[in-house]
Specification:
Elements (H helix, E strand, L loop, with lengths): L7 E6 L6 H11 L7 E3 L8 H8 L2 H19 L4 E5 L4 H10 L5 E7 L2 H11 L8 H17 L3 E3 L5 H12 L2
Parallel strand pairs: 1-3, 1-4, 2-3, 4-5
Helix pairs in contact: 1-7, 2-3, 3-4
């Protein structure tokens, strides 16, 4: 493990449309003078459901395997004081991935919003009506319940500006 005791890894997760990407953009802008990496889970590419099922048994199996790969990489390949990863990920996979390495200096932060706001953002702001499915609505609720069970901080972005979301994030994680 490379300098893992000196770094903190922040795993920013949440359903589509809750505000993860704008938060990361705000963090990158504010901390542009720092060398901290800001990474996106999906930068590895997301295969079709058929490919996920063929290779990993299910989309969930793919997500679990890729979460563990990301965490291994974050712990072993990044020596920065702070490392940020953003993506839609099952919080239990994140927790278990760090536990496998006995790495404790990480924070899972759930970015959340109410279903109506998510629907508005996906359809009107992002033009991604195809993402507004019952599965995505259930995923939103599932992640919220997981955050509660794992005592992970939650930032409800429903009625917050991007700057207010950034301020909430900084308070919750101690930046």
């Amino acid at each position: 493990m490379n300098n893992s005791k000196a770094k903190t890894i922040y795993f920013i997760t949440g359903a589509s449309g809750v505000g993860k990407t704008p938060l990361v953009a705000q963090l990158k802008k504010k901390y542009a003078n720092m060398t901290w990496p800001f990474l996106h889970f999906d930068s590895i590419g997301v295969p079709s459901v058929e490919e996920m099922e063929k290779e990993f048994g299910s989309p969930s199996g793919w997500q679990e395997a890729k979460t563990y790969e990301w965490i291994d990489k974050l712990i072993n390949e990044y020596n920065d004081e702070k490392v940020f990863l953003e993506g839609q990920v099952n919080l239990q996979f994140i927790h278990d991935g760090f536990a496998k390495h006995n790495f404790k200096n990480y924070k899972i932060i759930l970015i959340d919003c109410d279903g109506e706001e998510m629907a508005y953002r996906l359809t009107h702001k992002r033009g991604q009506l195809e993402l507004l499915t019952d599965d995505m609505k259930n995923w939103l609720k599932f992640l919220r319940n997981q955050a509660h069970e794992l005592d992970a901080p939650v930032i409800d972005t429903s009625n917050l500006s991007e700057e207010e979301v950034l301020n909430e994030f900084e308070k919750k994680v101690g930046l």
